[in-house]
Amino acid sequence: MEKQEETTNKKPLTLEQTREIMTYPNYWRGTLTRAAERGESIKETYERLKGLESFT
Asked: Distance between alpha carbon 22 and the CA centroid of its chain, in Å?
């Protein structure tokens, strides 16, 4: 079986996005960076992650 490659349209982050990501906890920054590269909202992504954190 062949391994499927994930195709993503990565967008370079702006300086403002990078600065915003740096205001969040270190352990979420990688996930927030990948979300921002996909064009997702950094704040909304963090809010979702923060909600999931209560389950652990």
From this structure: 12
Q: Read off the pTM.
A: 0.77
Quote the CA–CA distance of 23 and 26 in Å, as a whole number. 9
Tell me what the mean pLDDT of segment 8-22 comes to. Answer: 92
- The DSSP annotation for 19-30 comes to HHHTTS-GGGHH
Long-range contacts of 15-23 (CB under 8 A, 24+ apart): 17/42
Q: Which residue type is seen at 47? A: E
Cα–Cα dist 15/47, whole Å: 21
